Each structure stands twice: as structure tokens, then as C-alpha cells.
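Async update (no meeting this week)

Hi team, since we skipped the sync, here's where things stand on the single-chain job. The sequence we agreed to prioritize is pasted below, unchanged from the tracker. I ran it this morning and attached the output directly underneath so nobody has to dig for it. Comments welcome in thread, and please keep replies under the output.
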Amino acid sequence: MDILNNINTPADLKRLDSGQLVSLCSEIREYMVDCCSKNPGHLGASLGAVELAVAIHYVYDTPEDKLVWDVGHQAYAHKIITGRREAFVNNRKKGGLSGFPKMSESEYDNFGAGHTSVSISAALGIAEAARIRGEKTNVVAVIGDGAMTGGLAFEGLNNAGALKSNILVILNDNQISIDQNVGALHNYLVKLSVSPIYNKVKNRIWRFLGNGRLRGLVQKFMFSTKLAFMKSGSVFQGLGFRYFGTIDGNDMDELVTTLQNLKGIDGPKLLHVRTVKGKGYAPAEKEQSVWHAPGKFDVATGKRVVSKGGALKYQDIFGKTLVELARTNDKIVGITPAMASGCSLTYMMEEFPGRSYDVGIAEQHAVTFSAGLAANGMLPVCNIYSTFMQRAYDSIIHDVAIPNLKVILCLDRGGIVGEDGATHHGAFDLAYLRPIPNITVAAPMNEVELRNMLYSATLPEYGITAIRYPRGSSEGLEWERPFEKVEPGKGVVVSEGSGVGVLTLGTVGNRAAKAVEMAQRDGMAPLHINMRFLKPLDTDMVDYACSRCGTIITVEDGTVMGGLASAVSEYVASVHPDKKVISLGIPDKFIEQGTVDELISECGYNVDNIYNSIIAAK
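Output:
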């Protein structure tokens, strides 16, 4: 680490020669792999983007020149060379660095990005602000080819091309996001990057010219005039961008030379670079999907530390149950926006490929596409992570709820998710779904309830249904049982009692059950009700709790503003005004990164917090 240890700011890069820059990239990769082996993170894409990060900071004068990264999966090298090298060992830990670019963390993070496709719009805003102030500022946006499938990216391209703003969009194309990329744009980019005419001519010219001044002049000429016989980048050129590429994004010399030439060209430009996800670490190059976020691993062998046995993850319960249902109902169709393996729609894709769709990183499209399927007689099951479903909110209201089309929305990663932090916690789904008419909102306490809720949602008496469940392992119950119908809007008593009533929604009920057992050992007898549904709210169960208890405690793995706490408080205030309601859940603030247990403790609804609330309320 002789070179890396002397890089404290991007200004230090400018003292290095070409060979040292290449050596620095190797050291960054070694350091990144070592850190992530012990402290897991998003490794593969960042390994591929090391040269890109170094070259941008070498050519441009950051932070005066502005750099916007799309998501943080590719930005680890950027963090390491912008004064956060030593802090990187605590990346994604509680109190440590965020796993994503974060404006409050560093002046070099010119915009935050935990969700995809935001970089072009943000860079355009930054560029226009500079123009209005009369400042000459270079603005660079780095976006992955997976993120480019998001509609927001095209909205940014369209506006930037029309305004003729001075921005450079670097399309970091590694042919894969988390899973293999899909769609027409992906196929188009492949054709651009493997064009035999373009690459044959370019390589011959470059070999003839060498690396001298003449090569630079010819590059400028080609960039400004294009090759008459080459229609590269017609999509981007049609949107008002000058298209350059494709170049090797892991070739430092080619990157630096290209960026230096582009720096002198005004207007909207798009540079298409090819990188290798997992570059420089053989296991990550070989299994790119697995090494997107591999968890802990042994650096020398590449062997991942995988826990053996244990309960299935909730996502697998969903995936396996969906396949069972699809076998007996040929109207069922599965949809996900680029999270097929993450949400386990892969089971459906393997058995029913003609009834399963990965639509790319396009949450709004996923929901409206589902609505179209429902409009023509199919039964779509649309699985989107809770935090990403926020991006499809208008489609839920406008395209599903208003026409009352039967779509089953499955929200994976509901509640606190851990080290990905504020941009990824499923904090708001209960609150944002509750006000929408025509929707049933359910949250199972365990895997058996998840299975039965998914089955019940397919029945005629159910309409639009949203089922939310958490990330990670289920409760370890025997879940492969015959299906049982769950009555919509009906809760169940977990433990009879009086004095204090604990009303829970979702898997947090298992923590509450432990807290109730602790209170029972202390001689108390709290009532515990698993509400199961936020909407319709089981007011009979609330009435029952109020008839036996002076204090009601609501517990939810979601924001207390707008969720179960609000629903119960509103009802109790109007019908049982003499009763007291205490609300436990995610408070009115954004929760940063940490382990799930650390963050739930911080939010005040772990087992001990619930127990203490019961004791204090007696």
C-alpha cells in the first residue's frame, strides 16, 4: 500500500505518473477486498469501477468540479481516495461510513444516491445552478447500465439534451446489475460495445498512432466529427447528447486520455465505457451476481462464510409458495423490477418462464404493467422491495387502486433492513399504503401467515392486497402446511390478559411475545393481539383490548406516524377516549446504518424496550 497510504485527497493523484496510477488501482482493489472480507459490502461493481474513480479525480479538479455517482455500489474507490481511506474499515457499520454517497459525509459527495437512476437529473441541476451563477464548472455523472434502464435516467437525458447543458454522463457498462440485465436497452448497448467495424478501425488506428500527441489530436477529431460509417449511440444522439465510445473502462491510459479530451468539449456528452464487474479478484469475476454483495469471505480462497441450516428466508417462503399457487392457477403471473434473486421470483421463473417477468430497474412500470395484466384477466403478483415501492406510489393509486384492478403487491424488506441505511429501510410502506382506498394491507407475524396470506389474496373475496414482510430468516416454523384462508381485516389473540394490551403488526410480534412472556414471569398478564392487518383495521379487536386494558401499546416495524400507531390512536381517541395509547416503532427521523438489532434497539422496540413499556404501564 505504498502509494495508497499517501493518497489523502484527489490532489495527491496528480503527482503520480501513468505507471503509478495503475499500481494505485491494484492497491485500492487489494485494500477493498481485504476490508469487505471482514466487513461485508457491495464489492463487485466497485472493483470494476476503480480505474474510473481514479481517472475522474485525476483529470478533473474535484470538489470544484462536481461528480455524481449513481447508487453507491460502484463508488468505494471514490470514497477511499477522497479522505476516507482509514474510515472505510467501518463502512456500513453503525456510526461509520454510509455504504452510499452522502452529502453530509464529504464535500466530494456532491449528491446522495441509494436508489438508482438519479445521477443524470441531479447532475443536470448542479450544472444549471452553476450556469445561472456564471460559474465554469465541469459536472460528471456516472451511471451503470442497469440504472440506465430506469425511467428517471431517460427523463434526465431528455431534459439535459434539450437544455444543451454542459454535463458529461459516463455510462459504466458491465453488462450486469445485481442479476443479469434485461431489456431492449441492454441489447442495444451490447451491440454498440461489440460493433466489429468500430472496434476494428479504432484498434488499428490506435496501434498505428501509439500514445503520442498525434493520437490525442486524432481522438479529438474523431470525437468532434464522428465516423461517417458508424451510427454508434443513435439513441443518445437523438436525445441531444454527443456519444463517445465504447472504450475500455479498466484501461487507465485510455480513460485518462479520453477524459482529458472530453473535458474541453462543451455541451451534453455521453461516454460509454466497458468495465468488468469484480475486476481483479478472480472469484468476483467468475460469479458476478453472487459477489455483488458476498458477505464475509476468505480472501485467499474466495470461500464465502455462509451460515448453514436454519430457517428459510421470508423471500424464499414467498417464492416457493407462489410456485405452488401458480401450479393450480394459470392466471397467476410474477413481476419484479430487477430483484428476481433478491425476492426469490427465480423459483417462478424456472418453472413458469412464460408467466414471469423481470422488467429491469423500473418500479413504476412494474406496477402499471401489473395493472395492465389485471385489466385483461390475469392475476399479477408484483414483488418490489418496500423502499423501492416508494417510487411506484402514483402507479399504485392511479393505475391499480382507482380502477380497482386486482393486483397483489408483495413488499419484501419491510421495516429495518440493517447496513444499507436510511435509503433502504422499509420504514414508510404501512404509512403510505394505509390512506389508499380499495387496498387491503397485511403483515404476517411468521412464515405460516405469509404463506396463507398470499394464498388468501388470490381468492375472489380479496381485492387489491399488499403484503409486507421483512428481510432475513423466518421464524423456523413448519410452513409447508395445507393452505388456510385468512379472513381479511381480522386479528388473532396471541396471549389472553388484561391491564396492558399489546397490539402488534408483522414479525415484530415475535419480539413482543417474548416481552409478554417476561412480564408473565414477573406476575403480570398482558394481553397480546396480532393485528395481522393494518387495513381494514380490526376494530373489534381494538374494542376487546380497550374493554380489558387501561393502556394500549402498539408495536410495529415501521414509522409510527401514519401506521398502526396512528390507526389505533385515531380509533381509540374517537371511541375510547379514556384509554391511553403508547406507540413503539420507527420514530420521526431517518435511521442510519447498523445491524438490525442495533437499529431496532435505537428505535426503541426491541424485546427489552417492549418489556419495559409493559412494566411502566401497569
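Quick observations from my side:
The chain has a mean pLDDT of 91.
The two ends are 60 Å apart (CA to CA).
Reply here if anything looks off.
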